[in-house]
Amino acid sequence: MKLVIDSNVLISALIKDSITRKIIFESKLKFYYPAISLHEIKKHRELIINKSGLESDGFDKLFHTILNKVNLVPYNKIKSNFKQAKEIFENIDKDDVIFIALALSIENDGIWTDDSDFEKQNTIKIWKTENVLKSLM
Asked: 75: domain CATH number?
């Protein structure tokens, strides 16, 4: 299965050794993330470090390990679908339009997110963490 993941999934995996992190590390799923959105993780770096209890070096190592499990998709592969994504999602959450655009741009099975805003659209299939976990059993 191929899933687009949103920033909250990445942040969750960084903050806590949770089921989210376990799915990313141990499953055979393929994950995709818009490279342009890495700034969001970097912007919240200190907050994530504080919440995780990791030292700066430990955070960096974990972040790079997680990114090795995620396919970063460059913006030039997404931009042709950005207009359609805005039509679908801009009125719901303009900050997350990029994830809809990515899902429209690559072959995938949906977006893995626990953000309920994504359920307000019906173009892209949404996978909550519990559903991703159930699909692996």
From this structure: 3.40.50.1010
Spell out the residues 6+ positions from residue 65 whose beta carbon is closer than 8 angstroms to its own: 25
Q: Which domain holds residue 49?
A: 2-136
Q: Is 14 strand, coil or helix?
A: helix
H/E segment holding residue 70:
strand 70-73
C-alpha 50/C-alpha 4 separation (Å) is 27
Crossing angle of the two packed helices 82-93 and 97-105, in degrees rounded to 10: 150
- Domains in the chain: how many in total? 1
Token pair for 121: 């659209």
pTM (whole model) above 0.85 = yes
Q: What is the pLDDT of residues 25-78, one digit of tens each?
A: 999 999 999 999 999 899 999 999 999 999 999 999 999 999 999 999 999 999
